[in-house]
Write a structure and sequence with these properties.
546 residues; alpha/beta; five-stranded parallel beta sheet; five-stranded mixed beta sheet; 11% strand; elongated; binds flavin mononucleotide
Length: 546
Amino acid sequence: MNIFVINGSPKGEGSNTYRLTKAFLAGMRESGEAVEMREMAVNRLNIRPCLGCFSCWNKTPGKCCITDDMAGVLENMLWADVTIWSFPLYYFSVPGPLKNLIDRQLPLVLPFMVEDGGEDGSGSHPARYDMTGKRTVVISTCGFYTAQGNYDGVSSLFDHICGRGNYTALFCGQGELFRVPELKGRTEEYLSYVRLAGREYIGSGISDKTWESLGELLYPRKIFEDMADASWGVDRETGKKETDSLIFTRQMATLYNKESWPGHDLVLEMSYTDVNERYQVVLGKEGSTVLTENFRTPTTTVETPLTVWRSISKGEISGSEALMHRQYRVEGDFNLLMNWDAYFSGARGDEANKQKKPSYTGVIHMPSKPTTLSILLIPWIVFWAGASINSFWGSIAALSACALVPLWFYRNQKTIYDVMSGALVTGFSILSLVGAPIRLIIPLAYLAFGVMWTASCFFKIPLTAHYSMYDYDGEEALENPLFIKTNRILTLAWGVLYLITPIWTYFILGTGIGGWIGAINSILPVFMGIFTAWFQKWYPAKIARG
Ligand SMILES: Cc1cc2nc3c(=O)[nH]c(=O)nc-3n(C[C@H](O)[C@H](O)[C@H](O)COP(=O)(O)O)c2cc1C
């Protein structure tokens, strides 16, 4: 299949629209069909305006009297099975140089008047060459928040050129966002749909589902327009140019997702150490405000070089890694940083995150709800408490708890540790039922529990991280070295506690209060629980303070 691309943006390869076109072409290539591609960028061509002399109709039929690059364009159009027009919307139409190219297609038609077959009956000219089977794709971006209502002129133009419904049009608003590296999470998601569209176009046609994704706004109107306004770097009231750090802060503030408002306003102070400027972003119920003076008491202060924060926003470096390497400091409530993605995801961010494929290796399948530590703990607790009171009924109760765990997995995701716990407790319960001494089996069960926790510290994701990630950014948190380090320390602390628990458990089981061992062994975990709650806030904040 021969594909000819006309890049009609004055920016050539730097065009926003061309990013979409490239994604569409990549999809076409992936389709498996043998495709040959040719491209021409109008900004590199010498195409003079049509003189209106009609010599291509009468004096030299099919040949224009102007000698320039247009002859090559026409040649490629005749060669192509699919011609792709890629251009920005300029004043609700096509850019001027592209309009010149469109006008210069006159040699491709014959002068005679015919019915165009369209509903409007406006008249038409027959094709000079056999154009049967040739297809057209029109790809365009525009600057307003939506394509709707902006493309009437372009649609009317191509309706007349190709015939209504005889071409595929992909029009996209918010086009300038495609060049913003900080937003590539969303723009690349959109480009992946364009790519899919390219693949489907070659096959059975673009599916309704893909059209639906392509029809979605990149960002909600308000966020986009605030972001666009901030990007010009000009004060709305005074018209004066703003500093780079203020423009950057304003743009960041526009991405605030007010759904994540925690019930009270948060004041984020950004102190840019390299340019010696600071601003505050107030995250409120109705949206965010940037303060340049009359500062409030900050909830959280980030002291960072502007260059570092920029690189983090662009995804060039990871925020948590930069923190570990002391590239910036955080004072005050560290929770704001821990939940950064929830606060600054833009209104669509959450949705986009949900669509991400699970890359997380500990989860075996993905039911609707995240896992919970109760799934892991309940079989153990039932066994420890039950079997120490009555080895037979306690073991039966523990086996029943293990049997119920798979039901839980219908609703909650499971981790390898939930599965291991079920298997181990089942094993210990059976041993107890077949008469193994309970004074040995219960300490052994504590030991196995301790070994499982401690051993997990030697893996990439320590045990507690599998569960606590849902209190933070979900699977994203697993990429956060600070989160992992905090969890590694906590998992180890819990692991060691259970490695030593068998010592006193063994002796207590030999006394008259052996039946109370489940209750006795709950005392230390209560304190450990309090320590855990404190440590998981204190430790990251300590690191953040530098
Ligand atoms: C002269 C000019 C006219 C424009 N007219 C419109 C317009 O009518 N409607 C619109 O939504 N965007 C308009 N835009 C914005 C562009 O369509 C938008 O920035 C587009 O993404 C640029 O694409 P490109 O990088 O592929 O050239 C205009 C831009 C310029 C420079």
